[in-house]
Amino acid sequence: MDTSSFRGETLAEVTRAGLVESVHSGHLIELDASGDVVRTLGSVHIPIYPRSSVKALQASAMVRAGLKLKPEQLAVVCASHSGSEEHFRVIKSILADHNLDESDFRNALDFPLGEIERRAWGDKPKTQLAQNCSGKHSGMLATCVVNGWDTNTYTDPNHPLQKLIIAEFETLAREKVQHLTADGCGAPLFALTLAGLAQAIHTITVSPDPVHQEVIAACRANPLMVAGEGRLTTRLMRAVPGLFMKEGAEGVEVLSMPDGRTLVIKCADGSWRPMGPIITATFKRWGVEAPDENVYVYGGGKIVGQIEVK
């Protein structure tokens, strides 16, 4: 397989005492408030798996299908949660409100995603509730209950719910989804181009559609539910008014400002390490006040380098 186009361009370099020690390459696209492309790196028209960065799009399809949730519940449906007791409380409330329980889950077994939460978990076995996509799965199950759809097969790509999710993707991205497979949690995963993903995030941010407004507002109001304590997504959404942000596995990151400015990143090596510096540099150019998320390199307890963004 020829992977040369997938490697993209250099996004960031890790320097130590002026010498480049490591390089993160990949793809990046930036849209202005009007949705016009103002900057790209790499190949933004090749398909990628957006992984969990598209959970707000999936949640929009659920709300459109009649799912009615409280804001904190809707936010955890959009989440890759850390697995805290707060996350579990809200997910269990979604299940209970729809006469469901954990035995109805069809997602994978896992330990909590968050480092603190995983340590607190101790030697307990993996569970479906602890798996970071259980919020999304609770929303999918609840949507099935609302519509009288089969709950045993909700992860089947041909299930009515998954067909609605595909339609929502294609409407927002203005392109056809590609390369159907299963995500790590077991739900269907569809590929989009980086350009299509950026278009979808921009559109859901500025859309006058009440469904889109409800989903984005829920995430903005509940940054803890969207990720977890100490994580980049939660830190920045708390610090930057109106910011929407969502990470995805294998080095995918999306964010948008209320006016529609949008940034989408895909690291070719699947790393999240350069995300903070890239976002910090972008906010600086946008004139957005935000915490310094630069990553510094240490030698003997002193700063001797950093991740430098292209």
Secondary structure topology:
Blueprint: H1 4-7, E1 9-16, E2 19-31, E3 37-41, E4 47-48, H2 55-64, H3 71-77, H4 85-97, H5 115-121, H6 134-147, H7 160-173, E5 178-182, E6 188-193, H8 194-206, H9 210-221, H10 223-226, H11 232-239, E7 244-248, E8 252-256, E9 262-267, H12 275-286, E10 296-299, E11 302-309
Antiparallel strand pairs: 1-2, 1-11, 2-3, 2-9, 4-6, 5-6, 7-8, 8-9, 10-11
The CATH architecture can be named as 3-Layer(aba) Sandwich
Structural class: alpha+beta
Radius of gyration, Cα only, in angstroms? Answer: 19 Å
Uncertain parts: none
Q: How many β strands by DSSP?
A: 11
- Name the overall outline: globular
Strand content: 15-25%
Helicity range: 25-40%
Rounded to the nearest angstrom, the distance between the terminal CA atoms is: 28 Å
Q: Main β-sheet, in a few words?
A: 8 strands, antiparallel
Mean pLDDT score: 96
Question: What is the succession of H and E elements?
Answer: HEEEEHHHHHHEEHHHHEEEHEE
Structure notes:
Strands 1, 2, 3, 7, 8, 9, 10 and 11 form an 8-stranded antiparallel β-sheet that branches. A 3-stranded antiparallel β-sheet has the order 4-6-5. Helices cover 38% and strands 22% of the residues. It has 310 residues and is α+β, with helices and mostly antiparallel strands. The model has no long low-confidence stretch (mean pLDDT 96). The protein contains 12 helices and 11 strands.
Could you give a quick summary of the protein structure above?
The protein contains twelve helices and eleven strands. It has 310 residues and is an alpha+beta fold. The strands form two sheets. Strands 1, 2, 3, 7, 8, 9, 10 and 11 form an eight-stranded antiparallel sheet that branches.
